[in-house]
Design brief:
The chain is of the alpha/beta class and about 350 residues long. The protein has a single domain, classed as Zn peptidases (Aminopeptidase), CATH 3.40.630.10. It contains eight helices and eight strands. The protein starts with a helix and ends with a helix. About 45% of the residues are buried.
Length: about 350
């Protein structure tokens, strides 16, 4: 091959590589930027007294689930039932009737627990807010997922006296953790499948997952390959995570959250095969064609105690969790009262 031909071939290869790099960069930029970064603030941030009161209630839930009850799963059926009874008691204490969706796994009765606030003008349209209440084997599960269950319970309490346009369902799911994760025995898979079979008109689903770890330390946050070029290296934010189909929902939720909260938020809407994108109950709803996203502190990409016996109540930052819960409350209210 002559020198000129070789040079031309090298140029073509370089151009092709640059084009591929540009496409990859554009795709990552599209996936990682959902909603306006600096929307107009609708309300002022909550007072410290409001945050403290919610913090105390959240901490009490986390302590009960991960401290007093501890590991809760089919391998610890008595504790599993105690956790379910506690959640039902909180729901009922807020004025809800609770629906038990029971099913059997390994001769243990498992249950999804639903508290419903019926809608008014758009009652056939449904918004689901859910969190799994089991913990992985050998782990008390304070952050994963006591923090999110605590948030779920307080969100349900907040909406107990309201009459939203759309119907709100607050659901505590069984069996999210291994060995049931992404199997037909996963509680949210059972629940979402039943919703699809009935023809439920679910307009949005929010999966609350591992929400209590935050750090301002440099290098405390990690990501799947390449995503580190688009996000901060400090784990001091909450994440909204969706698939490409759910990108409009993620964008809308981000806009509302940022309009009502000064807590740092990052978003992503990416294919489910990206590591971590489908790691919770929202995946079950994607499989049934519903739009859904996860609210998370990014779990193993940040939390050093993930799936370890050291995942205890003292590791959960309940003050930050309170601020996040208040922001999510605004998102739920927006979704529950819109005809979009």
């Amino acid at each position: 091959m002559k020198l000129k031909e070789l040079a031309a071939s090298v140029r073509r290869i370089l151009v092709a590589l640059l084009m591929v790099a540009a496409v990859v960069f554009a795709a990552l930029l599209y996936m990682t930027r959902c909603g306006p970064r600096n929307p107009e603030r609708v309300v002022k941030p909550p007072s410290e007294n409001e945050v403290q009161q919610l913090r105390d209630r959240l901490a009490a839930h986390v302590q009960m689930l991960a401290g007093d009850i501890g590991e809760r799963n089919v391998f610890k059926p008595d504790a599993y039932r105690r956790a379910a009874d506690y959640i039902v008691g909180v729901f009922r204490g807020a004025g809800y009737d609770v629906e038990w969706q029971r099913y059997e796994v390994d001769r243990v009765t498992c249950a999804n627990l639903t508290a419903t606030r019926a809608g008014s003008t758009l009652s056939s349209q449904i918004v689901v807010v859910g969190a799994h209440y089991d913990s992985v084997y050998g782990c008390p599960g304070a952050n994963d997922n006591g923090s999110a269950v605590a948030s779920l319970l307080e969100l349900a309490r907040k909406f107990a006296g309201e009459k939203p346009a759309r119907t709100l369902r607050f659901v505590a799911f069984a069996n999210e953790e291994p060995p049931f994760f992404l199997t037909d025995n996963m509680g949210s898979r059972v629940y979402a499948g039943a919703c699809h079979k009935r023809g439920d008109d679910i307009r949005a689903m929010i999966a609350l997952e591992t929400m209590g770890c935050y750090s301002d330390e440099k290098g405390s946050q990690h990501y799947p390959p390449l995503f580190n070029f688009f996000y901060p290296d400090r784990g001091n934010f909450i994440g909204f995570v969706g698939n490409l189909q759910s990108r409009p929902l993620v964008s809308r939720a981000a806009r509302v959250f940022r309009s009502h909260s000064d807590f740092a938020l990052e978003t992503v809407a990416a294919p489910a095969f990206v590591a971590g994108i489908n790691w919770s109950d929202h995946d079950s709803f994607w499989r049934e064609g519903y739009r859904a996203f996860m609210v998370t502190d990014t779990a193993p990409y940040r939390y050093l105690h993930y799936h370890n016996p050291s995942d205890t109540p003292d590791k959960v930052n309940c003050s930050a969790l309170a601020r996040v819960t208040m922001g999510v409350e605004a998102v739920v209210r927006d979704l529950a009262n819109s005809g979009d």
